[in-house]
Design brief:
Blueprint: H1 7-10, H2 12-26, H3 36-69, H4 79-106, H5 108-118, H6 125-128, H7 145-149, H8 154-169, H9 181-186, H10 190-196, H11 214-219, H12 244-261, H13 269-272, H14 286-311
Helix pairs in contact: 4-5, 4-8, 5-12
């Protein structure tokens, strides 16, 4: 159990080959968008994420083993028990991922590490590789700790988490429109995840799922993709730069500035409130953007219904002419 391989490292050749294939396809299909500097930035950020993981992985493993030593359930690990433990652990890990991902969008401290993944204004397979450098600093790993406390071995969880990330890789594409309806109903798909990466008010803070979209449907965060509205990718205030270090650390810089300048009674809120929150209401958050959009939609609908009421039903023409 302690010698399970890292699926993401083993999958690197697959990532390289499929990115090359999608890029070649984009030369013939204008629906698939690639921008060279953006793609290379994503790949460089992904490489940096691997390095950061190697540097901090030992500390995460040590903490995970400590929690596992204090587990409340002692499972006799045999090949027979793994037949039910591995699927259960995969589902629980994906459930934990949903709550990590949702928190990473709703709490600025976690968003500061996660924002790097959303910082591209394009959506292709390289976007999947645009990963954080500061996940350890943000304590993102704490969402997996309950699994170790329940008696699931850390090596198994890390292996299954790697499979989870590999699954999420293929959904970062515009090359696939919709999957079969039964598949879309249960699994996360490119269509569902395009919504998650969108900055359109309709789509903000939706579809946090990793593998199973059912979590979003269960907890009220699901939004289907609509063909009537073109998706805009990126973040609310796009970087406007391909600088690796700015992409990796810009939100941490923003937090530091707010902590320095904000009144004392508001400082902690700049860590735990949603991104875009400000004590004087001077900034845009997803809540204010969505509220304004919803109000505009209501006004548009009311104007349409009012116009229809004033016009009244069509008058039938008399038989006499």
């Amino acid at each position: 159990m302690d010698n399970l391989p890292s699926p993401t490292l083993w999958a690197i050749p697959f990532f390289v080959i499929t990115v090359a294939m999608e890029w070649l396809w984009s030369r013939k299909n204008r629906k698939i968008r690639y921008e060279t500097k953006d793609a290379f930035t994503s790949l460089a950020l992904g490489t940096g994420s691997v390095v950061a993981g190697l540097l901090t992985g030992g500390l995460v493993l040590a903490l995970s083993l400590w929690v596992y030593e204090h587990r409340i359930i002692d499972i006799d690990l045999t090949w027979q028990t793994l037949l039910w433990l591995a699927p259960l652990a995969f589902i629980l890990d994906d459930f934990a991922y949903y709550w990590f991902h949702r928190t990473a969008h709703r709490v600025r401290w976690f968003w500061a590490a996660h924002v790097i993944h959303h910082s591209s204004e394009h959506y292709n397979l390289t976007t999947a590789l645009r990963q954080t450098w500061t996940g350890f600093f943000a304590l993102s790993f704490i969402f997996s700790m309950p699994l170790f406390f329940l008696g699931i071995p850390p090596a198994l969880v890390f292996f299954l988490s790697g499979l989870n990330l590999i699954y999420q890789y293929w959904i970062h594409t515009e090359a696939i429109d919709r999957m079969p309806r039964w598949f879309e109903a249960v699994m996360n798909t490119p269509s569902h995840h395009r919504v998650h990466h969108a900055t359109n008010p309709r789509y903000l803070d939706r579809n946090y799922a990793g593998v199973f979209i059912i979590w979003d449907k269960m907890f009220g965060t699901y939004e289907p993709e609509t063909d009537s509205e073109k998706i805009r990718y990126g973040i609310i205030k796009n970087l406007g730069s391909y600088n690796l270090f700015w992409a990796a650390f810009h939100e941490w810089v923003g937090i530091a500035k707010d902590l320095w300048s904000a009144p004392w009674r508001y400082k902690v809120n700049y860590l735990i409130k949603p991104p875009g929150w400000s004590h004087d209401g001077s900034r845009e958050s997803s809540e204010t953007i969505k509220a304004r959009w919803a109000e505009q939609e209501r006004n548009t609908w009311q104007n349409l219904t009012s116009s229809s009421s004033v016009a009244g039903p069509p008058v039938a023409q008399s038989q006499d002419g």
